[in-house]
Amino acid sequence: MFDPRLIPALALVLAAGGTALADTPRLDAQRMFPSGEIAFQKICARCHTGREDAVGPDLTANDYDPDTIRHFARHGSGPMPAFTESMVDAVTLDQIAAHLASIRKETEE
Ligand code: HEC
Question: What does UniProt give as the signal peptide span (predicted)?
Fold first, then answer.
């Protein structure tokens, strides 16, 4: 299973390997995941799928606007850890929200 806590370490290793650091786009300024769906699966799903062992509420069962997703992700809540920009970038958070909205819509139809 992919461990999101490894991302900062990985970013450091990659940055140290770059020769012209000034010309290298910062990793945290880029999208880190190919899609909101994959980001959700990798970062959030283990706590948020409604599985028996999930510790958080099932995020696919409710409507969450992007502001709510951003707020919880950046600040955490109770047992939920906060995610910094270097763990999940802002664009990806919006895509997670869009992904959740899209699967929510499917279940409504
Ligand atoms: C380690 C487990 C864990 C991970 C990983 C996690 N969460 Fe959570 N999350 C929780 C828990 C537990 C709660 C309930 C917090 C509370 O009751 O205060 C929660 C609450 C939330 C809520 C509020 C839900 C509600 O109806 O009150 C949102 C939105 C949310 N998380 C989004 C996310 C997103 C987006 C991610 C991925 C970037 C994520 N979480 C990753 C554990 C997690």
Answer: 1-22
Nearest CA to ligand 1 atom 37: 44
**Ligand 1: does its nearest atom lie under 6 Å from the Cβ of 84?**
no
Say what angle helices 66-75 and 90-108 make with each other, to 10 degrees.
130
**pTM of the shown model:** 0.77
Tell which one of 7, 37, 71, 77 to mutate to probe ligand 1, the residue whose CB is within 8 A of the most ligand atoms.
Answer: 77
Q: Give tens-digit pLDDT for 53-65.
A: 888 999 988 888 8
56, 48 in Cβ contact below 8 A?
Answer: yes
Q: Which CATH number fits domain 31-108: 3.30.460.10, 1.10.760.10, 3.90.600.10, 2.50.20.10?
A: 1.10.760.10
How far is ligand 1, taken at its centre, from the CA of residue 42, in Å?
14
Give the closest residue to 97 by CA, choosing from 56, 44, 50, 55: 44
Reported confidence tier of residue 75, pLDDT bands at 50, 70, 90: very high
